[in-house]
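<purpose> Linking amino acid order to shape
<body> The protein record starts here
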Amino acid sequence: MRETPYNRAAAVDYARRWALKRNSAYYDFESIGGDCTNFASQCVFAGAGIMNYTPITGWYYRSLADRSASWSGVGYLYNFLVNNRSVGPYGHIVSENEVKSGDIVQLGAEDGNFYHSPVITATIPTILVAAHTFDALDRPLYSYIYDTARFIHIDGVRIW
């Protein structure tokens, strides 16, 4: 296995293209709990170019019926990205001032339940995000109401 850089520009370009509409190649989860993490995964895939098809613990999407929990679940995406030692994108938690465009921020409640996964589209002069489920394009992060946030920096991509 070898490592390649994460293409942040491709992830952000995808986010900007699809933030206010839907790519018909993917199911829209809006009516069954929200589409934010599905959209975040699409953006990360645009920057990574590879999925991880490992049953149960991987990160992939073939269809609504054939996808990993990490593709569309907030906590599952976090667990995949920060624990992935195999094929696909991987990352770690950083502080707010260490994030880069193409990274993911997850917003949560005081009880530690994280519920939203916007994609960072810019960091200067402030953090801007794109998201589905309350669609947003270049929305300032400070305009959201949340108790806590975790910032997932995508370090790179592993390929065979």
In short: Strands lie at 2-4, 61-63, 66-67, 88-94, 104-108, 114-116, 119-122, 128-131, 136-140, 148-159. The first strand starts at residue 2 and ends at 4. The mean pLDDT is 97.
